[in-house]
Every structure is written in C-alpha cells, then in structure tokens.
Fold histidine kinase.
Amino acid sequence: METIGKPAMLGLWTVVAGRDIPYASRRSWLTGVFVLLGLGTALLVHDHLAGMPAPVKLALAAGAGLPVALLPRHVLAAWRIAMVATLLNLPVEIAPGGLDWPWHPLQPVLLPALVLLIALRHQTRAVIWAALLTTATMAGHLPSHHLPASLAAVAVVAVIGDQVRRRLEAQHSLAAERKLTEAEQERSAVLEERARIAREMHDVVAHHMSMIAVRAETAPYRLNDDRSARDSEFVAIAGASRAALQDMRRLLGVLRSDSPDASLAPSPGLTDVPALVHTAADAGLDVTLRWPPEVTATPLVGQTAYRIIQEALSNATRHASGAPVRIEATADTRTLTITVHNKASTHPTPTPGGGHGLTGMNERVAAVGGTLRAGPTPYGSF
C-alpha cells in the first residue's frame, strides 16, 4: 500500500506545488504568440462581462487571459490560476443575475486544454490528479445537463495527451538508442581497423627485422674481401631499414588518427610476391618460388596471401635459419592455395618471445573464408 501511495502523493504534489516542465523550444516568438492570445482572451472576457463593476471585470479578464499568456512555458502555473479562479464564486451583490458559467463561457474549453497540455509534459500520476481535480471543480459549478460532456472531454484529452507523451518519449528513447548503437558500431569499426593495422605492423616489422638480421649475420660468410660487395651489402641493409621505418611511420600515423584510413597502410598483393621472395633471397635465404602466371585473386585475398608468405618467410628465418624454403601457389576458379615448406635446419636458432605469427595467419585466413594448416611434417620439416 505504501508503494502505491507514494507515487500517488508525488503526483498530487506535482500538480499542486511541483516544478513545471517548460516546452523544449526556446523560441521567443512562441512566447510572444501566447502572450498576444492571452491579451485577446482577456479583452474578450472583459467585453462579455458588461454591467459588472470595473474591478470585477478586470479581475475576471486577467484570470482568463493570464493562464493563456503563461503557456507554453508554465502549464502548471496556468492550470493553478484557472482552478483558483473557477473555485471563486461571485457574491450575489456583485452579480445579481449570476453568470452563465462559473467565470466565463471559455472556462469549460480552457480547463480541458490545460489538462491536455499537462498530459503532454508530465508523468501519468500528475495527469490523473490534474484530471480528477479539474472534473471535481467543474462538477461543482456546471449545470447537470452540461456535466457529462465536459467530464468526458477532460478524460479524453487526458488519455490522448498521456498516450502522445508516451509515444514521443518512446521515439526519443529509440532515437537515443539508435545514436548510441551507431556510435558503438563506429567505435567497433575503428577498433577492428586498428587491430588489423596492428597485425600489419607485426608482419611488416617482423619481416623487415628478420631480413635485416639475416643479412647482417650471413654477410661475413657470403661476402669476400671485395670492398664494393661489402659496401653494397651495407647499402641494402640501410635500404631495408629505411623501408621498415617508412612502413612503421605510416602504420603509426593511422593508429594515432581518430579515423584510421586504410589507404595509408601498406596493402601489397599477389603481384608483389616475387619481389618479396627476391628480397629474401638477396638477404641470403635459400628460397624457391613456383608461381604460375595464371594465379590471380581478389585484392583482399591477394593481400592476405602476401602477408601469409611474408610471415612464413620471417618464421623460417627466425626458427630455421639456413634451411631451404619452397613456396608454391595453385589456383582454380574458387580457391587459391599457398604452400610454404621449409626443411629442417641443421642449426636451429629459436628466438625468444613471439607466438603471434600463426595466430595472425589464422585470423587473416579466417577473415576471407579460408583455412590454415601449419605444423611439422613426419620428416622434420615444417
């Protein structure tokens, strides 16, 4: 009972002394329009009450026009003024013949209109109290033959206003949820793009650093005492280092941006695979490429294949240094198959850390609907 009574008392307090909810619009011209309407209402009432004392006519005109002028920013205040004016009965000495309506014929129109505006802005509990108090006040003043229609009008406008308010609130809530969902989707897209770029950075940095390390480690064995050959090797290492730095700068620039642009990130494809293998061979890796000219794929699949081969070469360099590597590609109308096979190294050089290469490969292949198989063979190769 206490749970039910508390909301009811809150609704009563709202209509009697609670704070008003102003109209959402801040346009000054709207307030001016209602002020003019209130002035017109006051003049109409003043002219209608001919033969009554001037102070009474002014008071009744102000009581009729002020609620209209207070709209749309002070609905509850307007309703309270109208209710007080309705409850005041004129003494017989002031109005010997009485009034056709308790205030003015506009009163049965003004009170339901005020209930409607209250219903458009306040919660249901406040609307119920406003409708009940309005009908009770009108029932004490209206003739019996006018009472059913007036009370029905109050009830109808209260229900209509409450339903309209509920629908508008639901639409606003839905719009807010839609904006929130769109923002989350945009944020998720940005995070996914950044994760993709992070994988790109892993592949780019790992490959470049592996090739630089291989060139530096094998240079004493590959080069003779020819000074020009040594100079060329250092130039090649410096070029690979600059390429790695350029790729890293582009990727970091995208990651630092609020809206990553995929066009800024390196996006090689199948046509770049021979150059990739040639660079690895120049670094001292024993690599063989079998790449038929008819091998083609979409740009996304081609980029995935390139990164798979790049990571495979990096893994072979790090974990099986000196072991021969064979790369083959076959394709039909629906499938591109890439095979990277490296024999066992006679001097394995496992590197600490890592562990993300195969995971990145799996993610890339799964993103284009493919499958990845990686592991040792029965003959000790990979």
Observations:
- Residues 348-354 have pLDDT under 50 and may be disordered.
- DSSP finds eleven helices and three strands in the chain.
- The domain at 268-382 is CATH 3.30.565.10 (Heat Shock Protein 90).
- The chain has three domains: 2-142, 159-266, 268-382.
